[in-house]
Design a protein that fits this description.
This protein is an alpha/beta fold. The chain contains 20 helices and seven strands. The strands form two sheets. Strands 3-2-1-4-5 form a five-stranded parallel beta sheet, sandwiched between helices. Strands 6-7 form a two-stranded antiparallel sheet. Strand 4, helix 4 and strand 5 form a beta-alpha-beta unit.
């Protein structure tokens, strides 16, 4: 009997379940990696995402080989199936072990394979919560509120706790972490890396691909090994975490990373485990007396939001990706793929950054890209597919709940208590983007009217009946009622004209 292990591209941990199950027979357990060209044609992925995954896979393959695992690495294979079957046959594999994929489509793909051996899926151990534990928590609850889940996680894993009470007497310091970017801020430089020969080879491969891709391949500065990921974690803890909290929602022209951790790509690849990331932050709090609002705010993102999104993804029904509560069908404008095609400064700044880095922080994603997509009525499925293609930390489990649920409210409120919809007022308050824009953030009609404004009020008007059922929207709808019918019609015509203009340039 020969056991073989297939390691997927987002499972690059030496402690992942499949490898752990064979630790006592390393030399006799063949390990397989496959780069599939068919797989990456599902959407036009950002070039830096492809470089990151393939380079990290190649480095990890070398790490396992150095440990004594018999590694077969298939570069640039046409698909998954052909090299998998060949490897199973040549290695005489009788049982194929795979750690359960985080993404449902890939799990479905695995189950569809007609394999000449037994397939064993081991529970994914790269999260704090097992999917079965989340199901138990979610069972019989009327509302699956993130705050409830987060508090339960704090108790379960004893995170920032004093007995049964949270450190500092509060569970949530979010109110302390919403400062607008007043004055000149000086965030620390992020930790970047120069590509080594392996990464350089991958860059050249990606640049010559004969398939549609997105964004710029270079300069590529992301880490690609566990050692790199550990360095980024330590750099964040020492230079960025102390002041992470106050300005975590701020957006500043030319500042792409601010005080954000830049850890999500490494967590989502398996190069870091959420437990070690949280432990590093908690240890720093106790040993260096860091501000509690910064430490709690960061831990909430990892132990709360990230775990909640993963658990919810596996909890909702298979139809979740098709949800479209508002029946939005507008196509995605061309400027999502080419930032030069929009004259809205907030969108141009954010989208240019994504083109260059495959990264934007959570408020740019939620309150610029998703917010605008929601109020403008873009198809949720088109928006989600773009997010999945564009971001370096994107996977199905990340984007379905974050975009379909949180960003676009297309699930009708399974995840969020109200739509995250706002006018230009939010952008103007939390960024300096409006200062360099041709549009006036205070106008909702006229030549200088900001599209965020007329789309926001048009969104409220179009969906009044549905929004009235969302308790937290009643106050906002009262403001809509105060508006003259002529102004509401003018706003609606602005919205129509904007979409027509986008269609004519597409």
């Amino acid at each position: 009997m020969t056991i073989g292990i297939w390691i997927l591209g987002d499972q690059l941990s030496q402690n992942q379940a499949a490898l752990q199950s064979c630790r006592d027979r390393i030399a006799h357990t063949p390990v397989l990696f496959i780069e599939s060209l068919e797989h990456i044609q599902a959407r036009p992925y950002h070039q830096q995402k492809l470089i990151l995954v393939w380079s990290a896979m190649r480095h990890f393959g070398q790490t396992l080989q150095a440990e004594g695992w018999p590694v077969t690495y298939c570069e640039q294979a046409a698909d998954f199936v052909t090299p998998l079957h060949q490897w199973l046959r040549t290695q005489g594999i009788t049982e194929l072990r795979v750690m359960a994929p985080s993404d449902r489509p890939f799990a479905t793909f695995l189950h569809s394979l007609d394999l000449p051996c037994q397939l064993t899926l081991l529970p994914n151990n790269l999260f704090l919560w097992a999917t079965t534990d989340f199901q138990t928590w979610a069972k019989n609850r009327k509302r699956l509120l993130m705050e409830d889940f987060y508090r339960e996680g704090r108790r379960r894993f004893n995170l920032l706790m004093e007995g049964k009470q949270p450190v500092g007497g509060r569970w949530n310091f979010d109110q302390d972490n919403r400062q607008p970017p007043k004055g000149k801020l000086h965030p620390p430089d992020p930790l970047w890396f120069d590509p080594d020969p392996i990464t350089q080879a991958v860059i050249q491969t990606v640049k010559t691909l004969k398939i549609p891709t997105y964004g710029h391949a270079e300069p590529f500065r992301w880490g690609v090994t566990r050692h790199h990921a550990q360095q980024v974690l330590q750099h964040f803890i020492t230079t960025r975490l102390p002041t992470f909290g106050p300005y975590q929602d701020a957006m500043i022209t030319g500042e792409t990373t601010l005080w954000h951790a830049l850890l999500s790509p490494y967590l989502n690849l398996g190069l870091l485990h959420p437990a070690e990331v949280i432990e590093a932050a908690e240890t720093a709090y106790y040993e260096h007396d860091l501000p509690l609002n910064s430490v709690e705010g960061f831990i909430r993102q990892v132990a709360g939001w990230r775990e909640y999104m993963h658990g919810l993804y596996h909890h909702v029904g298979a139809d979740y990706p098709t949800r479209n509560w508002f029946d939005h069908t507008q196509p995605l404008p061309a400027f999502f793929w080419d930032a030069t095609q929009t004259d809205m400064n907030c969108l141009r700044q954010t989208l240019t950054q994504v083109e260059e880095l495959a990264y934007a922080h959570h408020i740019q994603r939620l309150m610029i890209l998703s917010n605008f997509s929601l109020i403008a009525g873009f198809s949720p499925q088109a928006v989600e597919s773009w997010f999945h293609a564009a971001f370096i930390d994107a996977y199905d489990w990340v984007m379905q709940t974050n975009v379909i649920g949180m960003g676009l409210f297309a699930d009708g409120g399974i995840l969020a208590s109200k739509p995250y919809a706002s006018s230009a007022n939010y952008v103007n308050k939390m960024s300096d983007y409006c200062k360099g824009c041709r549009y006036n953030p205070k106008q909702r009609t006229g030549e200088a009217a900001c599209p965020f404004n007329f789309f926001y009020w048009d969104f409220l008007d179009r969906h009044r009946d549905k929004l009235q059922t969302q308790g937290r929207m009643s106050f906002i709808l009262k403001n809509l009622d105060k508006m003259e019918a002529t102004e509401r019609e003018a706003i609606h015509q602005h919205a129509i004209a904007w979409h027509q203009a986008q269609s004519s340039t597409a």
